[in-house]
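User: Hey, my collaborator sent me this sequence without any context and asked if I could get a structure. I don't really work with proteins. Can you help?
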Amino acid sequence: MRANPGMRRDVLLAVLSVGAVAVTSILGQVATFPNLVPWYAGLIKPSFNPPNWIFGPVWTTLYGLMAFALWRVLRAPGELGRRRARAVGWFAWLLLLNAAWSWMFFWAHSPLLGLVNILPQLLVTVATARSFAQIDRLAGLCLLPLIGWVAFAGVLNAAIWLLNG
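Assistant: No problem. I've predicted the 3D structure and written it out in structure-token form, which is a compact way to encode the shape of the chain:
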């Protein structure tokens, strides 16, 4: 029994979506993990700073939603060519800024550089969600938790920068 071409295409797009998001996650982890101790552990943090263990499950969930959203946009009907290209372009910028933040904040040991990244990252995330929603409502909705988290991360990043001069 042969797999039907539509199913094969969906699986290929799922692998592509998960792969793009996984590469972003790995690039961020390469910059983050070696700098958690002693650098990050030694920073003064605000009272609302979540415990370290929360970041793994949150990012796993967010990355899963991001991959699912991208998959839905990629497999939407073919007549959306230009709109889809724009949405995927926004998503590529989102991934780039997401990975770059870890390098700017953790690898460079610079909450200020992280802060320089986080506002454009938030704006690009909002633009991506809007662009995705124009193609597939559920795909756009899947990015709402990411918008909330990036906004929270911006406030947290600013507080860490202010507390550590």
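In plain terms: DSSP finds six helices and no strands in the chain. You can pass these tokens on to your collaborator as they are.
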